[in-house]
Amino acid sequence: MASVIRILPSRARMLELEKLRSSIFHTSFNPTSARTGAKYLRARLRGPSMLNYYPSHPSIPRINKLLKHIHDEQEIPGRLIQLDDEAEIRRLQDVEALKARGKGKPKKVKKKGPYKGQSKIKEKGRGRETEIELCSVMSKIYEVSQIRRPFDILQAVKIAFCRRLKTS
Amino acid sequence: MNIRILRDIKARRTVAQFEVLRNAYLFVARNQTLPAAVRYRAQLQLNGLSRYTRPSNVKNRCKESGRGRGVMSEFGLCRYQFRLKALNGELPGVRKATW
């Protein structure tokens, strides 16, 4: 009985096969299993569903705000219609009562010498704009990624980022 | 509705707003095929983002009382609010067990 000896092809040959396969089926070829960070691009966006957790109750201040917004936006002639907010009226009355008893809010002290509190450094101007720009670019990339061509997208993002980091 | 719920709503809004940008920075920072200098700068940008942009900062609190612990995910209520509502018959299909 003749025994059949099966010899596997060499590793290099197998890699060649993998490469060819990935080029045909548009999958990524990553023989060293390097981390490409693709999972962050592939992940679905969680933000939109996060927004709907708490139910939104219509409250009087909110309705008043909306009425004011409509009034200002459309420039309707006549009086601004506002609902009576009992809680707010009561609060203001309480504040007045406290003030009358000399228990009101203390007056602000004028600053003496350098301000010793924490100072917040806010980035303004160009940096913020490029961020927004980048955001719009990325959202477009996300739209494209629905078409399932991750390989091209990865390249596009890589190029976009290298360019941005160079310029900034 | 209390301050903790308001803070959580703020976090949710910020997460939704910055999610794409954050994912983009994460992609660059975690990508081993990119040069180390580029990855480092992306990581610095990530560190500079507000803590409210982190999705893990968002917590499902009790919708009624804002309690952070003992919240049943199915109803979004903490155990006490759940009991009150269930006994009031405000939760369809929920009955007090007797045997």
What's this entry about, in short?
Chain A: Residues 101-124 are annotated as: Disordered. The complex is a heterodimer of chains A (168) and B (99). Chain A is mainly alpha-helical.
Explain the overall architecture.
The complex is a heterodimer of chains A (168) and B (99). Chain A is mainly alpha-helical and 168 residues long. Among the domains of chain A are: 60-100, no CATH class; 128-167. Chain A has seven helices and no strands. Chain A has helices at 11-25, 38-42, 47-50, 60-74, 86-100, 126-145, 150-167. The N and C termini of chain A lie far apart (73 Å). The mean pLDDT of chain A is 76. Chain B has 99 residues and is mainly alpha-helical. Chain B folds into two domains: 3-59, Helix Hairpins, CATH 1.10.287; 64-99, no CATH class. In chain B, strands 1-2 form a two-stranded antiparallel ribbon. In chain B, α1 runs antiparallel to α2. Chain B is elongated and about 65 Å long. Chains A and B meet through α2, α3, α6 and α7 of A and α1 and α2 of B. Chain A: Belongs to the mitochondrion-specific ribosomal protein mS33 family. Chain A: Residues 101-114 have a biased composition (Basic residues). Chain A: InterPro entries: Ribosomal_mS33. Chain A: Keywords: Mitochondrion, Ribonucleoprotein, Ribosomal protein. Chain A: It is found in: Mitochondrion.
pLDDT averaged residue by residue of chain B = 92
* Greatest interface by residues involved: A-B, 29 and 31 residues
Shape of chain B: elongated
Alpha-carbon distance between the termini of chain A?
Answer: 73 Å
- Percentage of residues assigned to helices of chain A: 40-55%
* The first-level CATH class name of the largest domain in chain B: Mainly Alpha
| Strands of chain B, count | 2
**Helix and strand run of chain B:** HHEEH
What oligomeric state do the depicted chains represent?
Answer: heterodimer
**How much helicity do the residues of chain B have?**
40-55%
In the CATH scheme, what's the topology name of the largest domain in chain B? Helix Hairpins
Count of DSSP-assigned helices of chain A: 7
| Low-confidence blocks of residues of chain B | none
Q: Strand fraction band of chain B?
A: under 5%
- Strand arrangement in the largest pleated sheet of chain B: 1-2
Helical/strand content category of chain A: mainly alpha
